[in-house]
Amino acid sequence: MSTAPIDATTTTAWADLTAHHSDLTSDLRGWFAADPQRAERFTHRAGDLYVDLSKNLITEETVALLTRLADEVGLAGRLDAMFTGEHINVTEDRAVLHTALRRPLPEDGDAHLVVDGQDVDEDVHEVRAALAEFADKVRSGEWTGVTGKRVETVVNIGIGGSDLGPVMAYEALEPYVQDGLEVRFVSNIDPTDVAQKTADLDPETTLFIVASKTFGTLETLTNARLAREWLWTSLAGAGALADTDDARRDAVAKHFVAVSTALDKVADFGIDPANAFGFWDWVGGRYSVDSAIGLSLAIAIGPDGFEEFLGGFHTMDEHFRTAPISENVPALMGLLNIWNVNFLGAETHAVLPYAQQLNRFPAYLQQLTMESNGKSVRWDGSPVTSQTGEVFWGEPGTNGQHAFYQLIHQGTRLIPADFIAFAQPAYPLADGDTDVHGLFLANFFAQTKALAFGKTADEVRAEGTDESIVPARVFSGNRPTTSILAPALTPAVLGQLVALYEHITFVQGVVWGIDSFDQWGVELGKKLALEVAPAVAGDAEALAAQDSSTKALIETYQALRG
Ligand code: F6P
Predict the structure, then answer these.
(1) Which of 59, 341, 403, 462 has most Cβ atoms within 10 angstroms of its Cβ?
(2) Does this model's pTM top 0.90?
């Protein structure tokens, strides 16, 4: 185990924040009225993002104290350790270098990033070039299936970080997808997933990408085998596959490629290693959309679009690495989350994109944030000293407004929320004379306003409301929100947004002293599933070994299944 993290709760900044919290009465109405510069004071820019923190429950003193907390827990040193490849993932003894995936190749004569004897820049750019070459072949039709037809559908088979990033980004960047190409995503081991996603596909024009960092994930390998069987059966059904092992091997070679850090296992599956794209153990699954795991996206939007996406990440990395904490958006947002969780008692955090294309962004963030910071011990194995890992959740607006916003507005819990929107619509439609995107964003602005400023009993009465229902119609206000605006949902902006949340997550992990890059919490369930599987399949001894509840559940399932 490495040296103990600095315990944030023992710092003077933490003590001062505690005192500041007990002295502070939240009053967004009063604070805005007293300070016409408040919005400007708390608004920052990072890359193309305009980030307004002013509707949070903070004063200048709060921010000054949080900035001091960052200093006292050594944020700058940890940041440097991450960017330079120290093994800050201590429980797996690994560097954490997703930021290297998007670094431009240094100019001739400039120093390369070398970590553990590996020229990271060289290796990353070699894979980036191979990815671009393959993506171009698929897009141009040079790459064909066994019957000589070009690829029309790419099916990415992966789960967790090998699914959520690519599917989120593919949906977000749908307007950039090449005509005639579609990407589908199979993740769940529920056989419904692979059955539905392949049901209407033509095997001759389908390319599968098996995306798995470890190439050992039960769900992904099971789905890959199901897909391979589907390919063979449906090609044979179309009279396009001879009944020989060689023909089947050729079909796999033309219709399956892989992305993994375990290239030996890829070969065992029957995928030609020449069609496998590698990455490295220093890329966490949930930080891997910008690695070769993004192959499906690179095919869909093209290598240039993918490079722009990576460029967006790099812009945010540079901002995070170089901006002073007082202007550093990921640092400030991470510290603000600490304030909300550890001082204001927030247990969850809503992410509300006003962009239908960011439909999967909250799900993506759930893995990024909760698999990273859902920990009860610190990186030296000692217990955490405060709450960690708030629950992230959300849905695109305005749909959420008609579902769960009631609780955010008038419930008993404090739910900080990030509102995200883009000035340029992907589809600029008008309803008569009304620009619908403008109407859409009016909802964003109205919601953040209502959450901040609420509605007093007198204001409700002034509307002529019957006294008996005045209390039900009062809005307390002082519900914290952060507003993020960007010009348009381009590949570069999406990269900036993802990197922003990666670094927010990192900052929180540093303050809590935890290893944000391991995920031991998912291992037990994986192991137990394998142990329980024989009992489900009918092994009496395995069934007898189960606890009474699990045994009864399995027996009930077996009886219902018939
Ligand atoms: O579920 C845990 C996890 O290990 C994630 O961290 C990871 O993204 C996912 O499984 C998939 O793993 P792999 O890419 O190795 O198949």
Answers:
(1) 341
(2) yes
